[in-house]
Amino acid sequence: MSKFVIKGRRPISGIHRTPGNKNAALPMLAASLLTSEPVILHNLPLIADVMTMLELLTDIGASVDLDTAARTVKICARRVSNTHLSKVLCGRVRSSILFAGPLLARKGNVKLYPPGGDVIGRRRIDTHLDGLRQLGATVRGGRSFLFKAPKRLEAQNILLDEASVTATGNLVMAAALAKGTTTLYNTACEPHVQNLCHMLNSMGGKIHGIGTNRLTIEGVDSLHGTEQRIGPDYIDAGSYIAAALVTGGELTIEDVEASDFDVLEKPFRRFGVRWTIDRQTRTLKLPARQKLKTAYDLGDAIPKVEDGPWPMFPSDLMSILIVLASQTRGSTLFFEKMFESRMYFVDHLIGMGARIVQCDPHRVVVTGPATLQGSRVSSPDIRAGMALLVAALCARNETVIHNAESIDRGYDAVEVELKRLGANIERISD
What we know:
Blueprint: E1 2-7, E2 14-17, H1 22-31, E3 39-42, H2 48-59, E4 63-67, E5 72-76, H3 87-90, H4 100-107, E6 109-112, H5 126-134, E7 138-140, E8 145-148, E9 157-159, H6 165-176, E10 181-185, H7 191-202, E11 206-208, E12 214-218, E13 226-229, H8 234-247, E14 251-254, H9 258-269, E15 276-278, E16 283-286, E17 304-306, H10 318-326, E18 330-335, H11 346-351, E19 355-360, E20 363-368, E21 376-378, H12 382-394, E22 398-402, H13 405-408, H14 414-420, E23 424-429
Helix pairs in contact: 1-2, 1-7, 4-6, 5-6, 6-7, 8-10, 8-12, 10-12
């Protein structure tokens, strides 16, 4: 175990290059199991969750050749000798559930254990189970999950009971090799879901409706290898933008997808944030020392920021935006609809001096600007941990953040990158 020690009040400035999207990389790694031919992925984020997925692939017999310097991995699942996933490895990541769809489609059976990941509320997998059952699999649950499909999966029309990103990915992968044409309704349409669908099409899949909430998948007999680049991580970019804003820094972010920021721009603009994007060079420029002030609704009503499925504001940036609001003149209501425990981290911010009223598990009112003081806190999950890091960067004196490994699961060498951009931060073993 390790902790971060941060001495705040130093501007975060310079050039930050966005790594590959975490939530695209994880299902794309699982999709390599759908073919016996090599799959090469570029722009791989070197985060803990990716490393666990690579361990899972190796453990079941796939060959994995990782080039960390080039951020490239070559996977060949020609000889998958085992469809029984490690209980320990499953417990480390939420994305272990993504092995169910491809292994069922290609091998006809898989045994896995309840997935791990962040404790930010109930994270049901019923949508995965129900969809796979409708495609013809039998599912036995309990302390482990045993999926069986002795015959080829068969296409169905399936209405997802929630627009789950991971369930959409799982069912698309399963349906890609099913017999007939599957139509999925109420699917997630985030950029990382689109990344996965484009990858499957490059492997010979036939997926239509990419970017919408209705996907049509024509099943094929087999898929072939491919070489793909993982798209940039807009959550990572948004996190570093917030770090620069609260410290008054000037930041250039390279390798951004402009269309991702069409969704992010409005919530940030609510706090007076301005940036420019050069679509040709894929570069975002954030000016220094921006005057952060909340824009109120008609009649000076307190505005509301709420999350939801794409193209609404992403839940993974909610914690970050709360810290930004604590340094912005005005009051804002934040409504977290997706996870009932995500807001509990605000207790740490309140202890640092933030003016926050928690109305209930889903809603908080933030009034700024507040002078934050260094404190000793513990990171409860990936995004809350990064939010606490952002708070520490603008706080007076020293902040210690325990459980640094939780942040490593979603951010690539975060202390190295922040130090390069001007932060006074160290990682120390507990």
